[in-house]
Amino acid sequence: MMMRGDKTQADVSSSDGQSSITAMAPPPEQPATSNTRRLIILSFWLVVACLGLPHWIWTTSIHRSDLPLESMNDWAEGKSCQPHYPLNIRLHSQSHDSARDAIVAARTETILNSLTDFQLYRFHVAAGNNTVSDVPTQDDVLVVELKQPSKADHVEAKLQSWVPVLDIVHADDDVERLAEFISEQVRSVFADEAKSLSYILGNTPFATGKEAIISPEDRKILEARTTRAFKYASALHLTFSLFTSSATPSAWDIEEALEQYITPLLGPFSAITKFTVDTQVQLQASFSPSIEGPTFDAATGQWKLDNSDLGGFINAAEWPLSPSIGSGPTINFVLYVPSAQQSPLVIAETGGSSWLIPQWGGVQILNSQHLSGRLSAEDLRPIMLTFADQLTSLLGFPQSPPSLSLRISSLTRERATSLIMSASSTLGALSRLTLKLKSIAIPDTVAKSVDETINRLNQACQDLNQGRFSRALQNARIAEDEAEQAFFEPSMVGQVYFPDEHRVAVYVPLLGPMAVPLVMAGAKELIAWVKYLKSPKTKTA
């Protein structure tokens, strides 16, 4: 029996002989419980929003220093520098007619500046009051010495070998003819340099439209010169090696030979590049077994190497020719003495005994049947002269003029121009990289290097356009180093391999399981709150 007033979990009725059980709803949730649950959910979200999210953003954010992208692009597009080359020429005369000398100088300057293939230059010709024995000043690119001939019809022009002095023997009283003759000689001095500079600037953003027209033959020569020469470096290491296939010669007077034949070349060039030198001797050194030759020619009695064997002649596996000696690239010069059984050893196509390996060094074969145990400096004289000629080719020396001083001066202008263009191109590549890869880090060191590069480029361009070519080269060299350092910053390069997709792949498996309960609970409470606000009781209240 059940009391009428009792409440049970089910009501039983038997009107049709069957029982029906109806489940009752759970008791309503107390307001205090709802508020507690909502506060717990809110506290979790507050921790995530106020502590977790900022900490995650701070720990995963990438520092990107501000770069002067507009200035970098201007340099890359050649808008910040239009190179031209002012050349100061000083005219000396044995006559004491200073007024006539000034007229000759002015007329010579006018003729030179009107030459169509010399529009990159701006000549300044002045008559000097100094004596013939005076040393050219630093601002003088060329000194023209006018001398009286021993015969009335004797005309001659000759460059001095070690100083930038052009001796002209001419006795013509006509100022116009004398100025034309001087202009033609000066033009021949700088003709090859004008082509080289036009080749460097042509088809680049730095082209000014004033470049000389280069013939296909000259273009091939300039391309070959660029291909075989080393890329510019502030320091180079020279290694002179003696390899003999037998036990003799076992020594050589290389120090004395270098002092006589190589040092005079390196001294003037040290203003552009610093050199270190070492020597070595190896006995019983056989040439590389990978080559097919040499083959014996019975008709001439010579052992001959084909051109195809020259590139593989160096026995890199056994000869100690390390490319990492010194602070800069290594230029190798190898003197090889074949055995008596394989001598004389020559190149089959030319009959010569020396060849150049582009961007590596030079090789010379010494054929002699009467070699002592030691090579004297006199024995090494033709060898050293060959090495000196190969060195000038590997350094990128122009073929003319014959004056060493003027060739170094020309090379200074060429190197400064090339370095300015190279550093500017690197800035453009860095600008494109930072714009394309938004996730890449840009450390403060990169921004500092970029600022230093732009500053040095401005100074180099200004020095170049004002005729301070040595200073232009120094500033351009620093600009190139800073630009390369900025572009190949280790921390920035490493970031390329960790894009945004990598971070997503790492964090989603960690944060996903924690985020789902928070999001679902928050969404549920939000829906409940919206329903509560829309309920009739809420509206009535």
UniProtKB/TrEMBL annotation:
Family, similarity comment: Belongs to the PIGS family.
Membrane recorded as keyword: yes
Signal peptide: none
UniProt keyword GTP-binding present: no
A Gene Ontology term for the protein's cellular component: GPI-anchor transamidase complex
Protein name: GPI transamidase component PIG-S
Pathway participation: Glycolipid biosynthesis; glycosylphosphatidylinositol-anchor biosynthesis
Protein species of origin: Acrodontium crateriforme
Biased composition (Polar residues): 10-22
Region (Disordered): 1-33
GO BP annotations listed: attachment of GPI anchor to protein; GPI anchor biosynthetic process
Membrane spanning residue stretches: 39-58
Annotated compartments: Endoplasmic reticulum membrane
Topology versus the membrane: Multi-pass membrane protein
Record key words, sorted: Endoplasmic reticulum, Glycoprotein, GPI-anchor biosynthesis, Membrane, Transmembrane, Transmembrane helix
Domain of life: Eukaryota
